[in-house]
Amino acid sequence: MIKHPTLSPEAIEDIQRWCFEQDFQRLGPSIYRVLETRFLGYLKLRNSPNPRLRQKADYFAKELRYAYPVFLAGRLLGPNPSIRRWIGELQRRIHLELGRPSFAGQCKSVLAVGAALWTGLTLKLDFLQHPKMVRTTYRLPAKRPEMLHLWEEMRRKCSSPHLSIQVELQQAKNQVCLRLEGALSAADAEGLGQRIRDSLARTKSRLVLDLKKLHWDKVDDLRPLREKLARIVPASA
Predict the structure, then answer these.
(1) Which of 118, 136, 137 is nearest to 128 (CA)?
(2) Which of 29, 38, 35, 37 is nearest to 59 (CA)?
């Protein structure tokens, strides 16, 4: 078997950053890739005989015209000359098909460049950014594992080939549910009652006792169990 080295969280984050940077440098900002996809969809659907598809082409055209202001920022601030040329060519093709922007749209383009420069500055200075994600570890109080250990130990010691005991610990309610299944003799009932009593005294838990799956035709006597529990909590079946 070939064992591969385990990467640390920091190493994984470095690889992810490298992948994102390669994606950005080679393919350009994702917003222009989305616009190119919509433009290609418009060209394909604009003359469709299906009116719904023509309606979708009109929707693409509307979204493309709404995005006109972002092209100037991409042509000026793209990650490299190749990407900047691609954005300029995409803008030229869209303008040929859908028309040039209005004067108001040209003003918005200038404002978009200013917004892009401000965003780049705040990113570099780590200013006004979202708080970094912090891993928070929630630990159970020390008594919780001890509680589970006590009840599991009771289950192991009191179970037998004829009797199965299931433990369900409901921590939010500070409650334990015991389900008894099988046959229960009087001697087993007394020993089980004592161990349940001891566990309740140590954990201060509430008890729900489920006896629905007991084989009542093989139960000798539940009096010892009832007497052991009577002074602590009322057992619930």
Answers:
(1) 118
(2) 38
Cβ neighbours around 38 below 10 Å, total: 19
| Span 104-162, pLDDT tens digits | 989 999 999 999 899 888 888 878 777 776 666 666 554 555 677 777 887 887 777 88
What's the token pair of residue 180? 């008894």
Residues 75 and 69: their CA atoms lie apart, in Å, by: 11
Torsion angle, CA of 126/128/130/131, rounded to 10 degrees? Answer: 70
Count of beta carbons in the 10 Å neighbourhood of residue 192: 26
As a whole number of angstroms, the distance between CA 8 and CA 72 comes to: 41
Which residue bears the tokens 């199965």?
A: 164
- The pTM of this model reads 0.52
Give the integer Cα–Cα distance in Å for 155 and 192: 9
DSSP H or E run through 16: helix 9-27
